[in-house]
Specification:
This protein is an alpha/beta fold. It is built from 13 helices and 14 strands. The strands form three sheets. Strands 3-2-1-4-5-6 form a six-stranded parallel beta sheet, with helices on both faces. It has a six-stranded mixed beta sheet with strand order 10-7-11-14-13-12. The model has no long low-confidence stretch (mean pLDDT 97).
């Protein structure tokens, strides 16, 4: 790369947008060229647009404080200033689909944190260590869009990234049935405790749309390219319950799984220890050195202690044991706004850059 790629952050004032900005500060591949948000924030300095709603426990980078926020609907102007954009807007799904496609058609690649395009057959839904090969569908997508360099890539729902990597390391044993219960932090809804005091001393056994995503999105991640679309895998069959718990960051999953070829516990632990993907092979800046970390202690992983492992980009696993109904059960933990959201998007963008999907404008 002769120069750093110029990046736009759409939805820059929101929780994920704020996290993206901190991850892009002094990034070796990328530099922030544009911050964009709704018309309400447009024209203000970023610091003024955010106001007192900076949600992270690390300070706002100095470089962005005086940047003037643009209106996300100024597609042509923003596209002229950037090489690609991250999209983390909070809008209805049909509006997100339109805005992301507008940027792609303006020859600006989109790395999306949103769910709006995850079901679009030629939009890859990427966990970089697992299905980097799905990026090949971008050529078919560009043909559909009529673009030379514009395309859309999405990251999956934050909840599935706690348990899908641990299952993926065991695919040679053909998992056929999964039951998962996720215990999800309030930051997954873009909130902190001061925004949502009702969550103190409380659990809510429902997160709108989350269970469908947890059951369906892994099948696209594990699917295959057939012609001009990604075809979902048929197995494993997944059933999920998703529960909101009074935790700031970190999604935990209780996982039950059965296999066509039941592995030994030793085989499972070995696969988890040695599992690597394309980000580790390419030594990407945000790639965790150890993707999956297993704890032998009976009371680990713990959200508060372990969510920040590998700078929040690693997955922790524990309590592996045989089950009376399924073959095995275990627990997994991921940092939902790092690995599950902004960090996963930045790692995906690093992969796209390393594989030369971003052509300089």
């Amino acid at each position: 790369m002769n120069r750093k790629l110029k990046v736009g952050v759409l939805g820059a004032t929101g929780f994920v947008g704020q996290r993206l900005i901190t991850l892009l500060d002094n990034h070796p591949y990328f530099e922030i060229a544009v911050l964009a948000a709704s018309e309400r924030s447009a024209g203000k300095s970023y610091e003024d647009a955010v106001g007192g709603k900076w949600k992270l426990n690390i300070p706002m980078p100095e470089k962005v404080k005086n940047m003037v926020v643009k209106n996300i609907n100024e597609v042509e102007e923003i596209s002229s200033l950037v090489d690609f954009v991250f999209c983390a807007v909070n809008m209805p799904a049909d509006e997100i689909r339109k805005i992301e496609e507008a940027y792609a058609k303006a020859e600006t690649p989109v790395v999306s944190n949103n769910s709006a395009h995850r079901k679009t057959p030629d939009v890859p839904v990427i966990i970089p260590e697992i299905n980097a090969d799905h990026l090949k569908i971008i050529d078919a997508q560009k043909k559909r869009l009529g673009t030379k360099r514009g395309f859309i890539v999405a990251k999956p729902n934050c909840s599935i990234q706690s348990y899908v990597p641990a299952i993926n390391a065991l695919m040679e044993f053909k998992p056929n049935k999964i039951l998962v219960c996720t215990y999800q932090a309030i930051s997954g809804s873009g909130k902190i405790f001061s925004d949502w005091p009702e969550m103190n001393d409380n659990i809510i056994p429902y997160i709108g749309g989350e269970e469908e995503k947890s059951e369906q999105e892994p099948l696209k991640v594990w699917g295959h390219i057939e012609g001009d679309k990604i075809v979902n895998a048929n197995e494993p069959v997944i059933t999920a319950q998703c529960i909101r718990v009074p935790v700031s960051d970190g999604h935990m999953a209780a996982v039950f799984v059965s296999f066509d070829k039941k592995p030994s516990k030793e085989e499972i632990l070995e696969r988890w220890k040695t599992f690597k993907g394309k980000p580790q092979e390419l030594n990407l800046p945000n790639a965790p050195e150890q993707f999956l970390t297993y704890f032998e202690e009976e009371n680990r992983p713990q959200t508060k202690l372990d969510r920040d492992i590998e700078k929040g980009m690693g997955i922790t696993v524990g309590r592996l044991r045989e089950d009376s109904l399924f073959d095995y059960k275990f627990v997994c933990l991921s940092h939902n706004t790092l690995r599950g959201a902004a960090g996963g998007s930045v790692l995906t963008a690093e992969l796209l850059a390393a594989e030369r999907y971003f052509n300089l404008k």
